[in-house]
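Subject: Sanity check before I submit

Could someone independently write out the structure tokens for this chain? I want to compare against mine line by line before I put it in a report. The sequence has 558 residues.
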Amino acid sequence: MSRQLQKILMCLQQASLYDIKVFDQVLNQTITANLIHSTPTWNCLIRAYSRSPTPITAILIYNHFIKGRLILPDKYTYPAMLKACWRAGLLSKGKEVHAHVTKMGLDSDVYVGNALIQLYGTTGHVADACKLFDGMPQRDVAGWNTLLGVYNDNSGSCVEVLVLFKRMMCEGVRGDYISMVIVFSACGKIGEGNFGKLVHGYVIKAGIEPALSLSNALLSVYTKCGEMDAAQGLFDEMAVMRDVVSYTILFNGYVDMGSVDSARGIFDQMRVKDTVSWNSMIHAYVKAKHPKQALDLFRKMEDEKVKPDETTMVSVLAACASLADLQYGRLIHWFMLRNNLRQDIFVGTALVDMYAKCGSTQAAMLTFYKMDSRDVFTWTAAIDGVANHGHGGDKALSMFSEMERQGIKPNEATFVSILMACSRSGLVQEGCLLFKRMVEAYQIQPKIEHIGCLLDMLSRAGLLQQAEEFIKLMPPGEKIIANKTLLSACINHLEGELGEKIANGLIELNSQSHATHILLSNFYALAGRWAEVAKTRRVMKETDTRKDPGISSVDIKT
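---
Independent answer below. Compare away.
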């Protein structure tokens, strides 16, 4: 091999995968120096381009030399060529190369076979990949890993990963750490924590070196399957070789489980915290109904000079809405404008929701109408704000109609908001028609929230008999809440006869909640049946049924 050729090959090996200019220079030098007749040069060039952002160039080089018949490709040429084909998404070219492989008698080569499996598997032809694998005269661990990876990347075939791994064990093939990482990934995707534990045992028994990527993959299995004790134990064992990925996996596991205190403990230990980590922790506080802690953490984020993004602002605005803190919400809005944060549809919806829940319907509507685009969640937030702050059902109905005219399909939450608006405004006919449209036109199955709104609407209008008939059609599990709503209406409308019937029905349903007992006691007191009042109070005392204490707060401005 000439010194110039050695220099060219060394240049290819040392070049970055993304340094296309270097590859192009090498290709020009090779042609100029008349070294293109060398198979190693050809193979190195194809391999380099197959791994680069322009794998199509590898295919063009291959086509040129096949057409010119300058040299013959060998078993080292085809794995790189097949890689270029699947990376470029050219299955038809890959099949053509497959035909070349068969013609040259290289289809029995284990490396070429593995590349063919990768080609068909990554282009969605899993059955063909499996057929090739089964037809291989000999297989190495890389071949098993290739098919395991194909199954794992196909969302509907993760179970096949576990089946293939069992087959691998039965055939006496010892997996390596790559095999284990793929199997752990599949276990996490389908929630097979127990299988993950068995594979963990195999890793220890087989003496496979616990590489960081392998430990992180197992940690991910435990967190995704909710096995947080096992995850924490493994995390503690990884004390020497943890990285930012390890912390993030465990942190996200606690966030998903709603264990905000444990999540915060891991969050505080993280040496590297990016915006995503801060967002996850703030969102966890909001989701766990700890809005004050969410805002405190946002202030800390500012102190540490971490730049928030749109996701941060959505969570912070939700915290302000939870606290009904209009002043802080306005400060956040001003902060966004001052820092030129992009107000996408999610941020806009969060602003509308915040202003509406803080009682500033005018600001909510102003924000709503300024938005360039609105989705069903934006319209729902606006309708809910109108319904909750005394603007009447007519305005809510008008917005609902406008939403439909713009081709936006209402969802379950939208119907809860509009039915609530009808209930509070006494629009019984309109509310009943909307309920019917929800079921028939939009095919939305009524939930307890929708049923509650309809019952409340009928009860407020004094249509108690109609409400009772509606309750009879409900599933048994939802009748307790519905009957409590109706009994409360009977007390308000002094309907003693129907009230007694509903009270007896509640007793038969064996409802033991404090609200039920208090309603029964109030009803019997209204009817002058003091013996029943005493009996109900005695039952509450014997079963230690107590009303949850109320909570009020006063925000003192200084």
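---
OP: Matches mine. For the report I'm noting this point. The chain has 32 helices and no strands.
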